[in-house]
Amino acid sequence: MRALVMTAPGGAEHTEIREVGAPLPGPGQVSVDVAYTGLNFVDVMTRRGDSAYAADWPYRPGKEVSGTVRAVGEGVTGLAVGDRVAAAPVGAGLAEVVLAEAALTAPVPDGVTLAEAAAVPLGLATAMLLLDDAGRFTAGDTVLVHSAGGGIGSAIARLVPLLGGGRLIGTVGRPEKAEAAVAAGYDAAFARGEGLAEAVRAAAGGRGVDLVLDPLGTDALELDLDVAAPGGRIVLFGNAGGGAVADLPPLARLMAGNLTVTGFSHRGLAATAPERLGRAIGKVLGLMSGGGLALPVTELPGLDSVAAAHDAMEQGRALGKYVVRVVG
Length: 328
Ligand SMILES: NC(=O)c1ccc[n+]([C@@H]2O[C@H](COP(=O)([O-])OP(=O)(O)OC[C@H]3O[C@@H](n4cnc5c(N)ncnc54)[C@H](OP(=O)(O)O)[C@@H]3O)[C@@H](O)[C@H]2O)c1
Hints:
Elements: E1 2-6, E2 15-19, E3 29-38, H1 41-48, E4 65-72, E5 84-87, E6 97-101, E7 105-107, H2 114-117, H3 120-134, E8 143-146, H4 151-162, E9 168-172, H5 175-184, E10 188-191, H6 196-203, E11 209-214, H7 221-227, E12 228-236, H8 251-257, E13 260-263, H9 266-272, H10 274-289, E14 297-300, H11 306-314, E15 321-325
Parallel strand pairs: 8-9, 8-11, 9-10, 11-12, 12-13, 14-15
Antiparallel strand pairs: 1-2, 3-4, 3-6, 3-15, 4-5, 5-7
Helix pairs in contact: 1-11, 3-4, 3-10, 6-7, 9-10
The structure holds NADP nicotinamide-adenine-dinucleotide phosphate.
């Protein structure tokens, strides 16, 4: 079978498509014939050589897929060969066949396309967990999202109205992406730069921001603290720039503002509480099946097109969510 392989840290020059053996499921696992794989920034960070991502090289990226069950391992119940599924494999999802834990594999309901479903196991499930779980979103909250123009940013814009609605403010790295964020559902979006805190505060209507979702390491943390409303929650869930991170705020500052700073990791949850991640995947697919949730995706034609898409993501030129057609 064909698989995308990153042979060494660096850029597109180290990305190859290779013939490799198809994996067989072990106990509690399924193998999936992949129709689509979602692209995620974590694969760009891995390719870039950020620490803590690739245990070894060559590395096989790809963390969310859709397709049909090819084989089921011992002890798996509720999934059968031929079922349409979405799954969060540990990795190696940019391939024609992938292994996934059954706990992180969910049936795709009728009426949901496999292209849409490929954006669920990491992207939409993370967006749901950031709001619903880590962020304790309640209807009417004002939410600030950094990197609003990307995959997670656009997913959050779709989910907030379904969770009861609230004012949605985004930041982006390039001015031209602000318009796209507004088109995706943000009430206001600003390019990061001078005057950002004032712009965010004004957009929040004076009271401040109830929930900040921040994947920028600690680069924007000072701003987050500055614009947070009393009792505000700040969820740190990435380090897009890949640089060193600063210390977290002093206790006195958190106490004075009644603020919460918390972390979120999809990978951590998959390892330590897969049932919570599995529930989020199922919940999002359920919302999609009722027609209440649709996330527009840009479909790429094949594994050969992935390296260029990773380039665009790395350079901050990408917009919205990308899925790649792997087989068919
Ligand atoms: N903790 C978790 O479990 C988890 C799960 C999924 C995603 N994430 C994080 O959430 C963020 C969004 O993920 P995504 O897959 O939807 O990707 P994405 O938003 O489609 O792409 C990543 C975006 O990061 C921004 N960025 C900021 N600083 C950057 C830098 N120095 N170099 C390159 N890009 C930079 C760029 O947008 P702007 O310049 O417009 O901001 C870029 O478009 C990523 O940071 C990712 O690591 C975390």
